[in-house]
Amino acid sequence: MKIAMIGSGYVGLVSGACFSDFGHDVVCVDKDAAKIDGLRAGKMPIYEPGLDALVTSNADAGRLSFTTDLASAVADADAIFIAVGTPSRRGDGHADLQYVYAAAREIGENLKKSAVVVNKSTVPVGTGDEVERILRETNPNVTVHVVSNPEFLREGAAIGDFKRPDRIVIGCEHEEAQRVMREVYRPLFLNEAPILFTGRRTAEITKYAANAFLATKITFINEVADLCEKVGADIQDVSRGIGLDNRIGAKFLHAGPGYGGSCFPKDTLALLKTSQDYNSPMRIVESVVQVNDNRKRAMGRKVIDALNGDVRGRKIALLGLTFKPNTDDMRDAPSIAIAQALLDGGASLTGYDPEGMEAASAIMPEVSMAKDSYEAVIDADAIVIVTEWDAFRALDLRRMRELAAQPVLIDLRNIYNPEEAKAIGFTYYSVGR
Ligand code: UGA
Predict the structure, then answer these.
(1) Structural domains of the chain, with CATH
(2) Is 152 in the pocket of ligand 1 (CB under 6 A)?
(3) Distance, C-alpha 271 to centroid of its chain
(4) CB of 302 closer than 6 A to ligand 1?
(5) Distance of alpha carbon 315 from alpha carbon 380, whole angstroms
(6) Alpha-carbon Rg of the chain, whole angstroms?
């Protein structure tokens, strides 16, 4: 199959590389010439474990190429994926669809034969209809079927998620489109990955419902964690106690500083906007968004409380800045709100992150960056673990204690055993324990 991937960002690049690894002939398109030049030279625009090796081996095998020339890429493609960004629109939280529609128009202008256009970008319900309308308007002479095929990739684990998916959701309205999509995913079919064919609008809603549900699960357990702290219970055991119930499931029950990233915050807001437009209130999701927003700054207050309510002139070390481990993505990272709350209180901050420091420096220029965890904690009045990178799971706590000015450890991801931390001499705080 010949596949054109429009947009070589996180989703486009991972999907394109994985499709080529299945043996399809893939060309990834992007308007950013520097990005395309970099990719041709084997330089990844994002940090994602395993991606560089996958891209290089498939590019070397001639199955994966990169271009800024959309026209040549789509001309003879069997399936054209739209994987461009859909950021939150400033002001109202609605998904900004300008890049999706621009891509649809450009595809329409350059199609030479009938094709299937597949929307992989996360888009509000009804966007597929509009994309189809644009394609028909710009190119009435070829038959185009528009499909919704949402992605369920987690940053940091995207290649595994793509190759061993829990399910593949494909929303389409025509048999021919279904046939092409079966062919695109045939290698996974052989792995018996469940493929769910639905209507197009159903697939669009499924993506938002999945992310909103996961965001709800996290927010729920975070509130239970707060209650655990007040009543002297342990959230780790509560999570295990409820997660072993198959109806609930153990995943996404880790209490922490609140969810961040490029998906949950944006997608929950966009779902709310859709629910308002259709006059179908979603009060649970509304609460989730509000509770999670408040939580991030509240984690800053938790640190201030640990320093007796005053951080003016204190030095605080932040370990982990990205929104989760194994990514360099800082979008909506809890560290941003936490750092701001501490800076507002007059603290000086030192940060360290295994992959995110370049992106973090641009967002939080007031935070001085250290070269490793140990340098970050020198003379610190408090050490805060914000993101659970593996590199922080087995720190030499004794050495940390000696380097720090005060033995205060605030572990917002519950990666340390409270008894061990206390035995080493730390005043130890965590979440929900
Ligand atoms: C999420 C979904 O998990 C993917 O299925 C989806 O495809 C993707 O969004 C998307 O829409 O593109 P991602 O944002 O990469 O993936 O990361 P997650 O692993 O879901 O984590 C999101 C946030 O929730 C992080 O801030 C993480 O720290 C937090 N989280 C996650 C918790 O606080 N507790 C948990 O138990 C799990």
Answers:
(1) 2-198 (3.40.50.720), 232-433 (3.40.50.720)
(2) yes
(3) 16
(4) no
(5) 5
(6) 23
Could you give the CA distance from residue 390 to residue 226 in angstroms, rounded to a whole number? 25
Residue-level pLDDT at 109: 96
Q: Using most ligand atoms within 8 A of CB, pick from 123, 236, 324, 331 the residue to mutate for ligand 1.
A: 324
Give start and end residues of each alpha helix (H) in 124-263: 127-138, 158-163, 175-184, 186-190, 200-231, 235-243
d(CA 43, CA 36): 9
Distance between CA atoms of residues 248 and 384, nearest Å: 31
* Dist. CA 245–CA 79, nearest whole Å: 41
- What pLDDT sits at residue 89? 83
Q: Is 245 helix (H, G, I), strand (E, B) or coil?
A: coil
Mutation test of ligand 1: which of 167, 214, 288, 388 has the most ligand atoms closer than 8 Å to its C-beta? 214
| pLDDT on residue 288 | 98
Any ligand 1 atom below 6 A from CB of 332? no
pLDDT at 191: 73
| 258-262-265 Cα angle (round to 5) | 50
Q: Distance between CA 299 and CA 285 in Å, rounded? A: 21
Residue with CA nearest ligand 1 atom 28: 324
CA–CA separation, 360 and 313 (whole Å): 22
Of 26, 7, 17, 2, nearest to 54 (Cα)? Answer: 17
CA–CA separation, 97 vs 304, rounded Å? Answer: 40
The rounded average pLDDT for each run of 10 residues, N- to C-terminus, in the chain (433 residues) is: 96 97 97 97 94 97 98 95 90 88 97 95 95 96 96 94 96 96 90 91 98 98 98 98 98 98 95 96 98 97 98 98 95 97 98 97 97 98 98 97 98 97 98 97
Sole residue written with tokens 């370049």: 358
Structure tokens, 427: 């005043």
Among the listed residues 18, 172, 228, 263, the single catalytic one is 263
Rounded-to-integer distance, Cα 427 and Cα 406, Å? 9
Q: How far apart are CA 236 and CA 247, in angstroms?
A: 18
Q: Residue 131: helix, strand or coil by DSSP?
A: helix
Query: What distance in Å separates the CA atoms of residue 411 and residue 9, rounded to the nearest whole number?
Result: 32
301 lines ligand 1 (CB under 6 A): no
